[in-house]
Specification:
The chain has about 120 residues and is an all-alpha fold. It is built from five helices and no strands.
Length: about 120
Amino acid sequence: MYLGSLEERRARGNEIKFVTAALYEAKVKDEEILRVLMKVCDADREEATNAFRNEKFMLFPCRELYQYLILEKGFEEHDADVFVHNKAKRALADNRELSKLSPAKLFDAINKANK
């Protein structure tokens, strides 16, 4: 019974994460994303807001940077993943303003800070 409940929570968390990512990438307005999460995913305001913040300030910039590293900088997938995991996530957690940068500028800012 407990395992089913844990699996259900994980599935629900994944659903909220995927819906948030899809709406954010589609450039849906912030308040509309929150409204959809609360209505369609049955998330309360706090849960919807946390999912949105995580997408906006961490997950989306990391996905964009990962693609940039592979497609523009010629990184191997593993190396791009390591860079994002070891450097970008920490930098974004420490400074939300970095999430507003393009992937190229984010990459430069992270490298500059790590020298």
